[in-house]
Every structure is written in structure tokens, then in C-alpha cells.
Automatic annotation (TrEMBL):
This is MFS transporter. The chain crosses the membrane at residues 20-44, 50-71, 83-101, 107-129, 141-166, 172-197, 218-242, 248-271, 283-304, 310-335, 347-369, 375-395. PANTHER family: MULTIDRUG RESISTANCE PROTEIN MDTH, RESISTANCE PROTEIN MDTM, PUTATIVE-RELATED-RELATED. It is a multi-pass membrane protein. It is found in: Cell membrane. Residues 174-416 form the Major facilitator superfamily (MFS) profile domain. It comes from Nocardioides caricicola. Keywords: Cell membrane, Membrane, Transmembrane, Transmembrane helix, Transport.
Length: 416
């Protein structure tokens, strides 16, 4: 009975993977607690300036960029589970160290440890999901886990809001303690994750050369870059745009985050279920079209009064979230399935690299464009996703996996 209900909601059958799912949920809640207060924590507990804290985080982000491909090679050599656990331990160690960090050098060092640990976690995450799921049902798994993380971030965000309201160093220390504890609990749960066998012994000479010469996968990578760029809008562009450009009250930003969280948490599985029978590349075309429409709506908000502007920001957020739910599971499934199994760690590290690069560029680029006029940001983002439409069409021509239909059923189930 329970399996039938979860299947109708678009969720996969968890079977023996409940500990892995639990670990991802706990990790998301812990991260959701800390991310909103990451800079505030160091300002409240150290004598460092805002510029110093920002510089340390930027340096750590830059160092994490080349770490991704290096860790992808390690995934192929020693297995994804080991790198997943290592990434979890590094983040745990970094957050414990934050309790006694009070210098710029210390903050930079431990933020590098945390950033590389996060890169290790996400660089191996896709490999684990590919190992526990089966071809044909991977959109369902990636969609479910993505929705669950979204809800976890929201729950953590509520806790962080309480800490910000209290505003004392003790409250901020409690936030870091909660995040460190989440990594410790997640590590224990992740010990039960099935190990993926090392595949380096089957890798040909010049493994990275094989990856870099894979033209169709680079088309997919560019499509991922377009999607990742759009995914920076909710956390970075909308808050700045709504508050500083449109002069809207803060509750509008909170409502936008709430809408996104509720829609993803309750609707992601249903959206993936509704994709059954549709070709993957066409889903990606639609996702990019929806993103462009959302940017037009958001830009249009600047032409109206405060009340209408607030309404349009919320409408734009709803449209934007639909694009998010359409594109994410399909891109994740393609990233895993289009990669040769024995080089999957390297291939997926490239997909993670797209996220890392856009995460590093977006804050500066979005702020610069908003400072030069709201239209420049939304036009630029629209152009990126218009390019994403062309890339999706090309992907359907050059990558057989992209031309397949979403089945939401494992291949062996379809054969019955």
C-alpha cells in the first residue's frame, strides 16, 4: 500500500536505501541551518571585517574549482562511497574547527577544507545515486532527492532564522554545532551505502583525454551550465532585485523562497511522473523556455507599482520553479547515463564543475548587472537560456540517451 502511494506521488521505492535517503535529508537540514548565517557567524564570533570574511569564502570557492576534476579521478580509482565519506568528514572537521577560528588565515584554511569536502560530497553523490537506481528510473531518484534536499534546506532555514533573531554569539555557535552534528550523523548513515567498485583498472590510458574528447557530453555540459546559471537566480538575483531595485518589503523574498520550497517538495515527484513518455531533450527545451518566460515576468515587475511588482515577483518565482523541476532530474539522469561506467567519476566531476563555476561567477556578475540596470541581468539570463534551448535540440541529435523517452520504470520492469 505504501509503495503504491509513494509511486503515485512520483517517489521511488526506497527499499534498502532508507539510510542513504536519511543521510541526505539530515545533511540538507544542517546545511540549511548554516548557509543563511555563514557570514553573520564569523562577524558575530570573530573580530574579522566583512571584507575579510568575504575574501576568505571567495578564495575557498576558487580553490574548490580545480579540486572537482581531481576528486572525479579519485572516484574512479577508489570508489564513490569512499570519496563521499571523505567529503563528509572534511566538512565535519571544518565546522568543528570553526568553533576556535578567529583569524583570517584560519578562516581561509578551514573554509577551503569545507569547500573541498563539499565538492567531494557532490562529486561522488551522482555516482552513488546511479549505483542504487536503475536505468529508466533515474529521473525519479534524482527528482526525489532534489526535492527532499529543498525541503531540508527550508527546515534548516527556519532554525537559522531563529538564531538570527536571537543574534547572540551563543546562538550562532549553536548553529555551527547543529551543522557539525548533522555531518556526524550523516556519516554514520552513509556507512550503509553500497560501495561502488573502483574502476581504474578498467580505465584506458589517457582517461581524461577520453572524457575531454567526448563532444556530445560537452554539449550536455553547456546545457548544464545554462541550467546552473538559472539556478543561481532564486538565492542571489531575486533577493537583491526585489529589495534594492524594486524596493519591495522583505516578506516578498521570504514568500518567494517559501513558494519554491513548497512547490519542489510537493510537486517535484508529480512533475517527473508527468514527464513519462516525453523525450528528454524536449523536456530540456521546455525547461529553458519556462526559465526565459520567468525572466520576462520578473523584468516586467519593474514597470509597475509596488503591489503589482510584488505579485509579479511571486508569479515569476512560480514559473521559474516549474523550469527548475523540469530540467534538474533530466540533466542529472543524463549526466550519469551518458558517462561510461568506468569513467563516471570523471564525467560527473565535469557536471559538478558547471555548478562550481556558476556559483563563483553569479554573485559578482549578478550584482554588477543589477547595478547597471535591471534589464541587463534578465536579458543576459534570458540569452543564456535561449542558448540552452539550442543546446537541448542539438543534444537530441548527438546523444542517444537524450533522444530516449522518460519511462520512470526500470528497464527490466518494462521488459515484463
Amino acid at each position: 500500500m505504501l509503495d503504491r502511494i509513494t509511486d503515485k506521488l512520483g517517489f521511488p521505492s526506497l527499499d534498502q536505501h532508507r539510510r542513504f535517503v536519511g543521510a541526505i535529508a539530515i545533511d540538507a537540514i544542517g546545511s540549511g541551518v548554516f548557509l543563511p548565517v555563514s557570514m553573520l557567524y564569523f562577524l558575530a564570533t570573530t573580530d574579522l571585517t566583512l571584507v575579510q570574511v568575504g575574501a576568505a569564502i571567495s578564495i575557498a570557492s576558487a580553490i574548490a574549482i580545480p579540486a572537482g576534476p581531481l576528486l572525479g579521478g579519485l572516484v574512479d580509482r577508489i570508489g564513490a562511497k569512499q570519496i563521499l565519506l571523505l567529503g563528509n568528514l572534511m566538512q565535519f572537521a571544518g565546522f568543528v574547527a570553526y568553533f576556535v577560528t578567529d583569524s583570517f588565515a584560519g578562516l581561509t584554511f578551514w573554509t577551503v577544507v569545507v569547500s573541498v569536502g563539499r565538492t567531494a560530497f557532490w562529486g561522488s553523490y551522482g555516482n552513488i545515486v546511479a549505483a542504487i537506481s536503475r536505468p529508466g528510473e533515474r529521473e525519479k531518484w534524482f527528482g526525489f532527492l532534489g526535492a527532499m534536499r529543498n525541503v531540508g534546506f527550508a527546515v534548516g532555514g527556519l532554525v537559522s532564522g531563529l538564531a538570527i533573531t536571537i543574534g547572540t554569539p551563543s546562538a550562532y555557535y549553536a548553529v555551527v554545532l547543529a551543522n557539525a552534528a548533522s555531518y556526524a550523523v550523516a556519516f554514520v548513515l552513509l556507512l550503509a551505502v553500497p560501495a561502488t567498485a573502483p574502476s581504474e583498472h578498467r580505465s584506458p590510458e589517457g582517461a581524461w583525454a577520453t572524457v575531454l574528447r567526448d563532444g556530445p557530453y560537452w554539449v550536455l555540459w553547456l546545457g548544464q551550465f545554462a541550467y546552473s546559471s538559472a539556478m543561481m537566480v532564486l538565492n542571489i538575483a531575486i533577493p537583491i532585485y526585489a529589495v534594492t531595485v524594486l524596493d519591495l518589503p522583505g516578506w516578498v523574498v521570504g514568500a518567494a523562497f517559501t513558494l519554491n520550497t513548497v512547490m519542489c517538495g510537493l510537486g517535484q515527484g508529480l512533475v517527473v511522473h508527468g514527464l513519462t513518455g516525453h523525450r528528454r531533450w524536449r523536456v530540456l527545451v521546455l525547461a529553458n523556455v519556462v526559465f526565459v518566460v520567468s525572466f520576462v515576468v520578473l523584468l516586467g515587475a519593474s514597470a509597475f507599482s509596488l503591489v503589482l511588482a510584488a505579485a509579479l515577483v511571486l508569479v515569476g518565482t512560480v514559473v521559474y520553479t516549474v523550469g527548475e523541476m523540469l530540467g534538474g532530474p533530466v540533466l542529472s539522469a543524463l549526466g550519469a547515463e551518458a558517462a561510461p561506467e568506468h569513467l563516471r567519476g570523471r564525467y560527473l566531476s565535469l557536471m559538478q564543475l558547471a555548478w562550481t563555476i556558476t556559483g563563483a561567477i553569479a554573485p559578482v556578475a549578478f550584482a554588477w548587472m543589477l547595478d547597471h540596470g535591471a534589464w541587463s541581468l534578465w536579458v543576459a539570463l534570458g540569452a543564456v537560456n535561449l542558448a540552452g534551448i539550442l543546446l537541448a535540440v542539438q543534444l537530441g541529435r548527438v546523444m542517444p540517451e537524450a533522444a530516449q523517452r522518460v519511462t520512470n520504470k526500470a528497464a527490466e520492469d518494462l521488459a515484463v
